[in-house]
């Protein structure tokens, strides 16, 4: 196949058409077209255990299946401490992933017909043979290391296994460099370990919760939302730092409406107050931390008065909130956040958050940060993986010395042939992540995709990334498949089972099957020594002291903890750092040429007529993957741009008017977006919810609704410590006239 | 026995899970809902407050919808739950006009539909779907005549309000503020 260029192919233009799943004029929320008025018929006649795949929290639940084999509803598993029987709206509406009429239905292979690139439907054998042949050719020419995987979610594991067996460990996920990487690195450098996922924050029992840009309640991380609600009931003090009055901010005793990009100044001022007003936990710091004297000297001049001019927060408010934290300590949490790749100095900001936690003595104390414990589930026996000749670490080329996970952007960079690029990547498998919307630096991404010999996309939906694939493989949804066990390390060790509620629809297949089929075609059958994934699950569950048949009945199993949740009084706890102590002063960072203690970097501010682009989450959507889910879209069909009334007046903008957004580099949004005029946002910023503005027509509902923030993020500040892509340094202005947009784009 | 609901606006995050759970439990057609979430923003930046609340039929003790129904389809069930008997409903819409809370909608199948307090679940001893799904546990449901019930307990201990009291409908849903 000749290919000089990878054309973007719209899957719907192939005459596959969308089969309307539910007949009649009325579309039903549940997968049933059962009689509508007789409530008895809606009762699930059997329930099947699952855990949710709409986000990474993975709450355990039950699919209720009616007699005629329809999934009627999904309800949380009451025994699961991650959800306590209460799924979030996305989990409750998860059945919409299964009933979505736009789902991928058959394997597709890219062909050239009459000089135009298009897809043809293919059988599984054709598609899998094609992939295996291409992978073999890549391995022969460049070595197996030249295959890479981008993944998110449960299915990533099977393809990681495939690549590891093939001889590559180039496995990356946007969840590191585009999301929680800076936080994890900052905490690892300070405490020797990260706060994991689900986070080990003891919100349930805290007396003071500090949120910095973390909008719990809008990010629907279920267990945390539930615990924050409990904390509100118990009268905990909540302090929220956000330029926007987030939902969490509206529940807070103190809302600090900070000037965006100046968080580090506030954190340093808090550290100053805790130390110089002698509010910090002396006993804890003396016993567990090192570098206090250096820190004290370092923050000497970082007074709240110094920070005032930077953050616009009144000094008395900063002192008052510091006292609130100290009063509650050690039962306090300065929440580490989750999506933390903001400005390119994010590890240092996370370090400052970690240092605050250390000064308050929160780590290892009730109401602070607790110790997790989980159950180790052994891998199903397989031969040892071959050792790759080179690995993702080599794509860092000496940069980002503290990246503990692969950095998506360096894998992408390594896929572009260039002089001196000796570790070139020629093939990608993309599973469960829509790179077009999750990765900033679009130009680099496009260039990389054009240079590949093979691009395989495995997904349930025709997301934008599928249009760039050579082969598209339709995966069945989480409600139609067995999957790896969810083994959670948290307050209590738990495991949860996912099994199919119904048979896969259309020609879709589970990812474990896809991985095994490709593996066998590559002569790696020894790594897949089972016929059905149930064998793997049963074997693993027996190692853990249970069995598949028991788990099919209970869905979730709790195990007894063997280690303490908090530091025991009188015990001598060793942190997981090299010296066993908390690193207020980081010798590791210093040795690598970075600031050993966080210093303030001033970030650019918007020019006149421009506003900082802040993005975030809505509780009824996950990333870009739910914008087509018919059970959820009625709640929020599109995003809107939040604009302060003063700014709206200046621009003459009206409520619900549609405008295009243009960023500082002249990039104009693909679609227009509805104006929301609200006092909840500062006058120097605008806010939009991430995950909208799909430009792929096969997403028949989501197409053209709202704007995609990622396309407006063209200025990316990379964190030199771990490679995180800071995405909050972009500014937008409004184009009111659609005609002008056409002229400029 | 008198069923009622108390909703804690201090805990509600407006996630709309109550809406989705109701839709899947009661098979409400896409584009319609029996409950919904309201956000009220007050003040100017940075002195702003938000009230979030989940709304639905108030199952009023003095119900204009029951009074105005020409066929008797809208009626009271046990515990004061206001129901519409679909077979008797002629879809005239008088109740939709009469409801001060806009809690009813015309179902595509020709009858008027609204919240039932999930009477089919309540009769089996379960909470309504919206109550049992709520991640913040901000909705309390129970018997307002039972002095030991959780709902009576929260109403005793917290300030609360009801919506449009001036309409004189005696709503059975209370908002904790």
Explain what the structure shows.
The complex is a heterodimer of chains A (745) and B (177). Chain A has 745 residues and is an alpha/beta fold. Among the domains of chain A are: 192-372 and 568-591, Dimethylsulfoxide Reductase, domain 2, CATH 3.40.228; 611-744, Barwin-like endoglucanases. In chain A, the strands form 7 sheets. A 7-stranded mixed beta sheet of chain A has the order 5-4-15-14-13-6-7, with helices on one face. A 6-stranded mixed beta sheet of chain A has the order 21-23-22-27-20-24. Chain A has a 4-stranded parallel beta sheet with strand order 10-9-8-12. In chain A, α4 packs parallel to α18 (511-521). The longest helix of chain A is centred in the first third of the chain and has 19 residues, at 124-142. Chain B has 177 residues and is α+β, with helices and mostly antiparallel strands. The two termini of chain B are 25 Å apart. Classes of the chains: A alpha/beta (745), B alpha+beta (177). Chains A and B meet through β3, α6, α7 and α22 of A and α1, β2 and β3 of B.
Percent of residues in beta strands of chain B = 25-35%
| Rg for CA atoms of chain B | 16 Å
Largest interface: A-B, 59 and 41 residues
CATH class of the domain at 192-372 and 568-591 in chain A: Alpha Beta
What proportion of the residues of chain B is helical, as a percent range?
10-25%
Kindly state the number of beta strands of chain B. 10
Distance between the termini of chain B: 25 Å
Termini separation of chain A comes to 33 Å
CATH topology of chain B: Alpha-Beta Plaits
CATH class assignment of chain B = Alpha Beta
Q: How many helical elements of chain B?
A: 6
Mean pLDDT of chain B: 96
* Strands of chain A, count: 27
Largest sheet of chain B: 4 strands, mixed
By secondary-structure content and strand pairing, the structural class of chain B works out as: alpha+beta
